[in-house]
Each structure stands twice: as C-alpha cells, then as structure tokens.
Amino acid sequence: MDKNWYAIKVFFNKVFKMEDILSDMDLETYLPVQKVRLRGLEHMKAAKLLAAVDANHRKDSRYIQQGPIIFERKPLVASLIFVKADDNEIQAIDNRLQEERILGQVQGFIYKSADFKKRATIPEKQMESFRLLTENGDGLTFYTADLVKLMEGDKVRVIEGPLKGAEGYIKRIKKDRRLLVCVEGVIAVATSYIPDSMLEKITE
C-alpha cells in the first residue's frame, strides 16, 4: 500500500511524545528541529537525565548525546510533526488521537484538505524541499497564513549549495530576495537572501 506524508498539529508542547508514539508504530517521521549544544548547568542537567535511564525506560528524545557532548533538539515550529503512512496507518493515528483527546493525554489533529473532506496528503517534492530548507537553511522565517498568496511568483529550483534540489518561489521579504517553500495548507518557510546565480526558473 502506498504511503503519503501527513502533517499533525500536537497541542500542549507534547510533540516529542507524539514522535515517540509514531516511532513505536514503526513509522517514518520528520520533526523540524534545531540542535543546540548544551553547556554548563544545562549540560549537567541533561547528562543526569540521560544517565538515569535504564532498560525499562525510554531515553528523553529531546536530547542527543555524542560522546561527552549533548545537544538539545528544539522544534523550529511549535507543535508540528510530519509522518509518512499508508491509509490504514493514518487511520490508526487518527483513532489514537481521538482516544487520547478523551483521555486528556497527547492531543492534536491531522491537517485536512482545503474542503475539509479528507486528510491532506503532502506531495513528496514539497516535503523534500521543506526538509532541505529546515535542515540546511539559514535565517529561516516561518509563515502559517495566506499560503496561497505566498505561492504566487516565479517558481525556481536551487542548483548550487546545501539547498541544491529544493523547489519553491522567489519572494522579496524585507527588501531581500528569498526562496520560499510551501507545504500546502500547513506552513511555509523562507530562507535568508539567496543569489540569482544559485537558481534556475522552472517552467510548467
């Protein structure tokens, strides 16, 4: 059965809990995060938490330890996670969210299509471009409203640098030309200034 990407909004800052639930279902997820190296008291606190974990408990997924260095994963977008699932799996997730809402645990919803008649699937190319920007881009700005209007303008593809392969729209934001990638109906992200020499226009 084919799998598609979906976006899930999670309430009350429990996005890492949702990530754990989806991981337990053996599903591929993407959580846009920034890795921040911890130092001083923050490092010591995280080290104690990680050291206290035994075989019966899950490690706190907020932290990544590489030898003596510990990083904290900080969401770039509040309470947003993506999951790749087939029809049966996304139905199971929806059922779980309905149950959890009643129990008062992990609450949230799966984004719907524009007509609210079905769950919104995210095209693979949009997801790839969004991941490229959120994993490698600098000076990112996120938008959650007027996404249709944001998608107006020249469509381009990045042909050089760490964002090579990303497709989006060129927008002038705060006097700079920036690459903007939209996940339709969910979110858009814009880079810092990007020169014309790194772009090629896409003709459709």
Characterization of the model:
With 204 residues, the chain is of the alpha+beta class. It has five helices and 13 strands. The chain has helices at 15-24, 40-51, 87-103, 124-136, 147-150; strands at 4-10, 28-30, 33-37, 63-66, 69-75, 80-85, 108-110, 141-143, 155-158, 167-173, 176-183, 187-193, 199-201. The strands form three sheets. Strands 8-12-11-10-9-13 form a six-stranded antiparallel sheet. A four-stranded antiparallel sheet has the order 2-6-1-7, with helices on both faces. Strand 4 and strand 5 form a beta hairpin. The two termini are 30 Å apart. The mean pLDDT is 89.
The largest pleated sheet is described as: 6 strands, antiparallel
Mean pLDDT: 89
The low-confidence parts are: none
Distance between the termini: 30 Å
Rg, please?
Answer: 19 Å
How does the overall form come out from the CA principal axes?
Answer: globular
Helix content: 25-40%
Class from helix and strand fractions: alpha+beta
Strand content: 25-35%
Please give the order of strands in the largest beta sheet.
8-12-11-10-9-13
Strand count: 13
Topology as H/E string? Answer: EHEEHEEEHEHEHEEEEE
Please give the count of helices: 5
